[in-house]
Amino acid sequence: MSLRLSTVILPYRRWHEGGRSAWVRAEQLGFHTAYTYDHLSWRSFRDGPWFGAIPTLTAAAAATDRLRLGTLVTSPNFRHPVTLAKELVSLDDISGGRVTLGIGAGGTGFDATALGQEPWSPRERADRFAEFVPLLDRLLTEDAVSSEGRFYSAHEARNIPGCVQRPRLPFAVAATGPRGLRLAARYGQAWVTTGDPKLYETGTPEQSVAALRGQIGKLTEACAAAGRDIAELDKVLLTGFTPDRGRPLASLDAFVDFAGRHQELGFTEIVIHWPIPDSVFAADEKVFERIAMEALAQLD
Fold it and tell me: In 3-state terms, what secondary structure has residue 56?
């Protein structure tokens, strides 16, 4: 499969003050998908402007025609499957079937406490995720759903007429642990990773490649156990969180080298962050646009 190049546009700008133009430009540059973070706030952006993912993607759907749209990633931290399913069916309809749901178990950041709850333990996050994904799958594929779970329930929840994409919009499941990988193998149309976070500060690019190779090996095993061929899943690398950090966006050649090494591992989609000045995602916009327009031709 040819490598796809996608981007993440963080929702930190007012729609009419640069927000809209980024999504339109992403389509013009030929990105496969433009994602956004589905957070209530995020790290160094906490005390600045930050807008909601679903309304932003809805506006982006109206401003574009071909660009796929998605979240990287939605989590149970402040979402419920019943209300999320209704929003996704609506977004999928408005976009004409151009939505991918990136979904993960969530973490311990601001989302985890914004509703007043104590942060969940890793085990509870995994338990909730294991219940959240199957229920969301049902809600997006069945006209009416009733289910009583430990964490999430639905009572005659209706989602008629369902998704434009059949049987439902695709799930891109972010996971590295065994339970999450099993969910990706069973319910995912794609798998997402950011690499091994333990290597971010002191690891090397070579160690990161080895860790990613190991993750893909475990995904292969999970797919085999689920009776699926791993080739059925897109394998998505969200960049910026490996020891390489922002270096792949330093030049076209640097990106081609980075992307080629990860394509050899089996990745089918690489996602780069839209440049944000004076942030961890700062990059030269001219280089970024050149990568968008020219890099894939050098990787075919």
Answer: helix
